[in-house]
């Protein structure tokens, strides 16, 4: 696949993402957690995209930090974002690029700990529906499955199609989730192609159900698709929540970074024993094959790289007219202060 040729288009990143520590309050000396019981929204928790969240939950790391976290699982990232905006969730486990998209709508949300350093999203065409597929032009007028419209899986599909001159209106996007429903949607012919996460995409790929045409499950593949490092899953919330609840955000970051450290040395059997049985989708071997494929995409220490934020802005502005680079202040979309403290605490 031809690597992207994003132009800088006279971006002015003002003080730059180096100022990402802007407006983060000092932690209370006593470390009192302002909101020990909180609600967290996620879109497709069974996906490897959110594995660090599941690990931190299953191993009791949130409880160890004095948190009672109620996790609500939605069909996709756009739905969990809606929960935050609507006030039914305090924090979201979701894609970093939503922080940029929302700022373009004059709403400020902020990432405070990174879980994924590559999107882990693959796009494939159905070998049954499109047996003679030759190029992206063949997808005009077709139905493309995504976790949920407006989610990061939708974003990757938009990016890939836009580079081939295909507008979002030239295809139909269908929300299929990130688990068994997604497998069924493709195999039954409800959709012609799909942009989704693992383990779903590896399962479809290994059984010959899809032909992969774009792949960000590895760092190399992400570089080819986005032209740079692309941050993925993170914990984000309203900027005001971060200011008002610094100790709560620190506790959440601590739990996630501790989970990230555990994942660095975890073996396949450790993963199988820790995740819920339902996440395996009935096939342990394929689940582990999927894990091996995306393992390097999992963040190491919770820190979001400045260049990654710039990559996300370039990517979004290339197909989303409402995202104008010169009007986006990246320093307000994320902070590394909490992750930095957690990294020091756990030696991640």
UniProtKB/TrEMBL annotation:
<feature type="signal peptide">
    <location>
        <begin position="1"/>
        <end position="28"/>
    </location>
</feature>
<feature type="domain" description="SsuA/THI5-like">
    <location>
        <begin position="49"/>
        <end position="263"/>
    </location>
</feature>
<dbReference type="Pfam" id="PF09084">
    <property type="entry name" value="NMT1"/>
</dbReference>
<protein>
    <submittedName>
        <fullName>ABC transporter substrate-binding protein</fullName>
    </submittedName>
</protein>
<dbReference type="GO" id="GO:0042597">
    <property type="term" value="C:periplasmic space"/>
</dbReference>
<dbReference type="InterPro" id="IPR006311">
    <property type="entry name" value="TAT_signal"/>
</dbReference>
<dbReference type="InterPro" id="IPR015168">
    <property type="entry name" value="SsuA/THI5"/>
</dbReference>
<keyword id="KW-0732">Signal</keyword>
<dbReference type="GO" id="GO:0042918">
    <property type="term" value="P:alkanesulfonate transmembrane transport"/>
</dbReference>
<comment type="similarity">
    <text>Belongs to the bacterial solute-binding protein SsuA/TauA family.</text>
</comment>
């Amino acid at each position: 696949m031809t690597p992207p040729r994003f132009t800088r288009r006279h971006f002015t990143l003002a003080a730059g993402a180096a100022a990402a520590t802007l407006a983060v309050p000092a932690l209370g000396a006593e470390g009192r957690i302002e909101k020990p019981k909180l609600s967290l929204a996620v879109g497709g928790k069974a996906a490897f995209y959110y594995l660090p969240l599941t690990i931190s939950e299953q191993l009791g790391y949130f409880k160890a930090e004095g948190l009672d976290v109620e996790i609500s699982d939605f069909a996709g990232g756009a739905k969990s974002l809606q929960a935050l905006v609507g006030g039914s969730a305090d924090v979201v486990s979701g894609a970093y690029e939503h922080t940029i998209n929302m700022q373009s709508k004059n709403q400020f949300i902020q990432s405070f700990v990174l879980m994924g350093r590559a999107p882990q999203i693959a796009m494939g065409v159905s070998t049954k529906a499109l047996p003679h597929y030759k190029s992206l032009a063949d997808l005009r007028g077709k139905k493309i499955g995504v976790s949920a419209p407006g989610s990061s899986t939708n974003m990757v599909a938009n990016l890939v199609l836009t580079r081939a001159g295909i507008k979002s209106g030239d295809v139909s996007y269908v929300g299929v989730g990130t688990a068994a429903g997604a497998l069924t949607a493709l195999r039954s012919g409800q959709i012609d192609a799909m942009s989704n996460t693992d383990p779903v995409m590896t399962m479809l790929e290994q059984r010959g159900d899809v032909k992969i045409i774009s792949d960000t499950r590895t760092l190399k593949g992400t570089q080819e698709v986005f032209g740079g490092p692309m941050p993925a899953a993170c914990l984000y919330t309203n900027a005001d929540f971060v200011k008002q609840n610094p100790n709560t955000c620190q506790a959440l970051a601590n739990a996630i970074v501790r989970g990230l450290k555990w994942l660095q040395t975890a073996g396949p059997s450790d993963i199988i024993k820790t995740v819920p049985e339902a996440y395996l989708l009935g096939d342990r071997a394929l689940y582990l094959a999927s894990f091996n494929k995306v393992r390097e995409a999992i963040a190491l220490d919770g820190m979001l790289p400045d260049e990654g934020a710039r990559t996300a802005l370039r990517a979004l502005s290339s197909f989303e007219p409402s995202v104008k680079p010169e009007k986006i202040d990246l320093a307000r979309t994320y902070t590394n202060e909490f992750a930095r403290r957690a990294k020091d605490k756990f030696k991640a």
